């Protein structure tokens, strides 16, 4: 079993992990950059270690600094959270080589499933349909032309090491492609340290549907799906579970394919298999696997009653999966919205500042995962997520109504946030009907962004 955990992250996810560890009686050590000395995760952990200056490269992304913090405080394990080093195979290997438990998959599993190209190949081998596109990495523009003959236009150029909505370009014509391909290569190299690219046909009007899995290296189960079709710049802003687009038969097929893939690669820990679902053609396609806890995991927790982070800690501690597939059932409907420190009326410009007043929503079916407290200064160095508001209701309708109620209760004084976006979306007929796809929000914003100043 795990006795003392280093939480190698910051923000709301560090707070979330500390809470799960405490519930299991595990001692916790927070790490923080110079910009985060007063952060909530530092206050809530049993101990805290300063690991470097504000720049992530010198603190939250520094493997030597993190390993030293773990050694100095006598930790036996490390949880990477999401972002930062969560999908870094070298980090998983380094933690293990230092004699510590990595709360996540092995370096080899991350290399296989964290690289989007080898993950596509593994999915295809496991019989999971993938988006038509290149076989492996596309080595140069000549090889790309052959793939284009199959995909046609528009086509997506994607970075093998991309993530968080970054490293993806669309080309609508040969001329656009010839210009975009070398740019994408240079950008991927600069952003991810790996210029590897692959290509996919663009699936138009698709929904983003993903399946949560839990596995222990031998067995795997799923915890049903989440739909995350409301996206801006390919980043999720609103997530829900279950998806209203799936029939029971298709849900079973989709979830079974995720379990088959997890088993085929002897996956261990929590993971998410992401798909695009084309309603019109009634087909789904694998796009990638995230080998970590995801931002939107609480909607699954709401509908299944499972504490996914606690299960990750138990699995990493060597326990076999406690849950059988038959133990996992869905109750009601849950929605999460991401409250970011951004001004939706000004093209979502970042809005760091100080939280002057704070009113946290509550009551039945409401969860607020955040690192905010009155007086907290939001540093400008990290991503803009301030809080996740998660609501749960008997039906999707009831969940949306509850979302509106909870959003109206929420007050984050002193900062601009994405709250007005969610109030407007909750009132929109297409959102109410669940009639959306991954490009829908961008179109909606073109017409409605100016009205979000309130
Ligand atoms: P999720 O997949 O959990 O819904 P996101 O796609 O928003 O969440 O990613 C979660 C966080 O991790 C974001 O802060 C995002 O910027 C970051 N992230 C994800 N993948 C990468 C990557 N390959 N490189 C850098 N940051 C990443
Ligand atoms: P990331 O690693 O950044 O999360 P993904 O491959 O998961 O990248 O894709 C992010 C989003 O980009 C998807 O949710 C979807 O909206 C869009 N997308 C990705 N691939 C395709 C595709 N082949 N066709 C249409 N949209 C796509
Ligand atoms: Mg993704």
The spatial strand order of the largest sheet comes to 13-12-9-10-11-14-19-18
| Bound molecule types | adenosine-5'-diphosphate, magnesium ion
Largest sheet: 8 strands, antiparallel
Q: In terms of per-residue confidence, which ranges show pLDDT below 50 for 5 or more consecutive residues?
A: none
Helix content: 25-40%
Q: Using the coordinates shown, work out and report the CATH topology of the largest domain.
A: D-amino Acid Aminotransferase, Chain A, domain 1
What is the CATH domain class of the largest domain? Alpha Beta
Which structural class do the helices and strands define? alpha+beta
Number of domains: 3
Identify the overall geometry.
Answer: globular
Total beta strands: 20
Quick tags:
454 residues, alpha+beta, Rossmann fold, Dna Ligase, domain 1, D-amino Acid Aminotransferase, Chain A, domain 1, eight-stranded antiparallel beta sheet, five-stranded parallel beta sheet, 15 helices, 20 strands, 34% helix, binds adenosine-5'-diphosphate, binds magnesium ion
Characterise this structure.
The structure is a single chain. The protein has about 450 residues and is α+β, with helices and mostly antiparallel strands. The chain is built from 15 helices and 20 strands. It has an 8-stranded antiparallel sheet, sandwiched between helices. The protein has a 5-stranded parallel sheet with strand order 3-2-1-4-5. It has a 3-stranded antiparallel sheet with strand order 7-6-8. Bound molecules: adenosine-5'-diphosphate (2 copies) and magnesium ion. Its EC number is 6.3.4.14.
């Amino acid at each position: 079993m795990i006795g003392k955990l280093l939480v190698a992250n910051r923000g709301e996810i560090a707070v979330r992990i500390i809470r799960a560890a405490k519930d299991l009686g595990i001692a916790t050590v927070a790490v923080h950059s110079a910009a985060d000395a007063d952060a909530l995760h530092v206050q809530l952990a049993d101990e805290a270690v300063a690991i470097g200056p504000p720049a992530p490269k010198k603190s939250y992304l520094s493997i030597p600094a993190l390993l030293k913090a773990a050694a100095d405080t006598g930790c036996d394990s490390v949880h990477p959270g999401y972002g930062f080093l969560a999908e870094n195979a070298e980090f998983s290997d380094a933690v293990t080589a230092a004699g510590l438990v990595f709360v996540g998959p092995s370096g080899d599993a991350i290399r296989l499933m964290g690289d989007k190209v080898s993950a596509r190949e593994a999915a295809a081998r496991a019989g999971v349909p993938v988006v038509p596109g290149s076989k492996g990495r596309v080595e140069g523009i000549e090889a790309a032309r052959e793939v284009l003959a199959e995909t046609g236009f528009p086509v997506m150029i994607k970075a093998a090491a991309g993530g968080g909505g970054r490293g993806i370009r669309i080309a609508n014509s040969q001329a656009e492609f010839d210009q975009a391909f070398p740019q994408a290569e240079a950008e991927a190299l600069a952003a991810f340290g790996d210029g590897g690219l692959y290509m996919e046909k663009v699936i138009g009007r698709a929904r983003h549907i993903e399946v949560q899995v839990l596995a222990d290296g031998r067995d795997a189960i799923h915890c049903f799906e989440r739909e995350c079709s409301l996206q801006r710049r390919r980043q999720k802003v609103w997530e829900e579970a279950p998806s209203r687009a799936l029939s029971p038969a298709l849900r079973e097929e989709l979830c079974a394919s995720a379990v088959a893939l997890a088993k085929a690669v002897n996956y261990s820990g929590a993971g998410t298999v992401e798909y695009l679902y084309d309603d019109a053609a009634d087909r789904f396609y694998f796009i990638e696997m995230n080998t970590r806890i995801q931002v939107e995991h609480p909607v699954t927790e709401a509908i299944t009653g499972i504490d996914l982070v606690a299960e990750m800690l138990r699995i990493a501690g060597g326990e076999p999966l406690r849950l059988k597939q038959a133990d996992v059932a869905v109750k009601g409907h849950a929605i999460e919205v991401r409250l970011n420190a951004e001004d939706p009326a000004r093209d979502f410009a970042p809005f760091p500042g100080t939280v002057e007043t704070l009113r946290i929503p509550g009551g039945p079916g409401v969860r607020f995962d955040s690192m905010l407290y009155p007086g907290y200064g939001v540093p400008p160095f990290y991503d803009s997520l301030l809080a996740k508001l998660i609501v749960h209701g008997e039906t999707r309708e009831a969940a949306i109504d509850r979302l509106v109620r909870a959003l109206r209760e929420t007050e984050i004084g002193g900062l601009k946030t994405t709250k007005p976006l969610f109030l407007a979306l909750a009132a929109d007929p297409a959102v109410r009907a669940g009639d959306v796809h991954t490009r829908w929000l961008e179109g909606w914003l073109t017409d409605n962004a100016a009205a979000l100043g309130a």
